[in-house]
Amino acid sequence: MKEQKEDNKDLGVPATEEPAVNELDAAGRSLSEALQISFVILKVIMIVLVVAFLASGIKTVDSNEQALVLRFGKIRGLGEKRLLGPGLHWIFPYPIDEIVKIPVETQVNLPIDSFWYFQTQSEILSGKMRPVRPSQPLNPLRDGYCITRGENQNESIGSFAGSDYNIVHSKWQLTYQIDDPERFFINTYIEDVKPGDIYFNVITESITPLLKDMLDGSVVTAMVNYTIDEAISSQDRMPKHVKRLLQEKLDKIESGVKVVSVQLTNSECPRQVKKAFEASTRASQESETEITNARTYAANTLNESAGPVAEELFASLHNESIDEQNRELLWSQLAGTAREKIADARTYRTEVVERARANADYLESILPEYRQRPKLVLQKIYLDAMEQILNNADEKFVVQTTKGSKGTQIRVLLNRDPKLKPKRSKEQTEGQNQQTANR
């Protein structure tokens, strides 16, 4: 070392001191230790990042949702494994896997007012309809409406000849939900979800125009099969018809959307003819009421007169092909007042026959006496008849006309009762009142 220093000295090179070399060695060791610590920290950070990256693959599916896992944009899994149910699930983090949550249990209400007349914002908020003059026409560019068939349409052949179409305003409400997440995701267009957007809101906003257009078409197709009266009064059959048509359209495109219900929330005739339509409706209702009352009265009258068999018996009397045996069977089934009348008639007939037979027997018994003394027998018969007549009279008058030009009469009042006159007057008054009521 000394020799090297001497050589360096001879060569004119300055000699290096020992302390400088020791300082360089200490700096290298410090740098090495710092690099080792940095590498350790970097490894820890990398491990934490890897763990955090893997932990980001833990996803939660809510109870009203089902989820699809996309691996590089393609649905992962087969069969039932393609759908994830509610709970915690782990997938490879983005961009390897991506989870799409679809709310399958949530029902969405979609109001449809495409067929309602135009209303300003103030009218909508107040709920009051502005008056419209009958001369003010309907504006098809602003007022919504739907066409119904006329009353004269022949449904059996589908002919529209001679039928007058009518216009009706209506409001609807559609309730739907997603029942097939995979078909919905594949076949239904959904806008891209931006950061901060809620996927459910994006779904709703994306499919609302599709559902609205399909429902409008279904309403137009269905309403033309109903009259305006049915369109306004039918709150059950027509919505079912619209629901069926709409579901068929959604199934045809495999949308994965299920129609829960379709409701007709409001329907009105055009405001320009509302008063006339209401008057016509009242007249129609009154007519139906009168017809119903008349049919009820006829049925009650027939039932009271002859019972349930009245109509059948009436038809049999005008049908010559029915034999007498069947008619007699129907007669035997009569009830009500007709049966009573027939029973009374038969009783009266029996009484008349028996009375005639008794009179015949009586006359036959007095015939020998009549042959011997006819005047006496006739006088006896006359007196018996007068006695029977006078016994039934309330008042009796014996009038004997006197001879002479003045014609003076002597009247003898028998059994005069002061109560008879008021009684007779009361009976006459009641009889007159009854005749007036019948008239």
3D structure, described in words:
It is built from 13 helices and twelve strands. It is of the alpha+beta class and 439 residues long. It folds into four domains: 2-54; 56-103; 108-269, Tetrahydropterin Synthase, Chain A (2-Layer Sandwich); 332-428, no CATH class. The strands form four sheets. Strands 2, 3, 4 and 6 form a four-stranded antiparallel beta sheet that branches. Strands 7, 8, 9 and 10 form a four-stranded antiparallel beta sheet that branches. Helix 8 packs across helix 11 and helix 11 (336-372) runs antiparallel to helix 12 (374-391). The longest helix has 38 residues, at 18-55. The N and C termini lie far apart (163 Å). The model is unreliable at 1-5 and 156-162 (pLDDT under 50).
Short account of what is shown:
With 439 residues, the chain is of the alpha+beta class. It has 13 helices and twelve strands.
Strand tally, please? 12
Measured by DSSP, the beta-strand proportion falls in 15-25%
- State the secondary-structure class: alpha+beta
Separation of termini?
A: 163 Å
CATH fold-level topology of the largest domain: Tetrahydropterin Synthase, Chain A
Q: Count structural domains.
A: 4
Helix amount: 40-55%
- Helix and strand run: HHEEEEEEEHEEHHHHEHHHHHEEH
Q: What does the main sheet amount to?
A: 4 strands, antiparallel
Q: What is the highest CATH level, the class of the largest domain?
A: Alpha Beta
| CATH architecture descriptor text of the largest domain | 2-Layer Sandwich
**What value does the Rg take, in angstroms?**
55 Å
Shape verdict: rod-shaped
| Tally of separate helices | 13
Low-confidence stretches: 1-5, 156-162
Mean pLDDT: 78
User: What is the name of the CATH superfamily of the largest domain?
Assistant: Band 7 domain
